[in-house]
Amino acid sequence: MLKGFAPIALLAATLLLALGWLMGRTGGLDILPAESYRAEVAEFHGRHLALLAAHGTGQSIDGIPVVHPPAGSDIPMLVKRWEFSPALELEPGKTYRLHLLAEDTVHSAAIGEAEVLLNPGVARVVTLTAPSSGRVRIQCAEYCGLGHTKMIGSIEVMAGR
Question: Where is the Cytochrome oxidase subunit II copper A binding domain positioned along the sequence (predicted)?
């Protein structure tokens, strides 16, 4: 009877270690808990357009404009079926505040391994410090329709432009 217990105990210990490792990962991002506030879609769109005008790179990824905001920026990010806008180019090791607003239905922003639930009309603010290099995906983790699996945004970490 004890012989059968050892493999089960070993498997359980391995699963617990793996789960702990996965829960501690944030995809290289240092992310602080989100705060929230009520937001009007029209006003938020204006802030989004101002960001594009001030810090747009002239490039796009799958039709989503790319911005390269300065460190410490507040970045209004529109979340709607089936996109996160804008795509971001961030400086390594710098801190930013993402203001995420779901425009049409409930979404969720999984940034690295952290996740924030997004309800229409409520902006969620996520403070993050960019990793030293690489690309981190932003993905919707709340089913929002047939295009849900393609709802992926981008954070590209790159040294100054």
Answer: 68-161
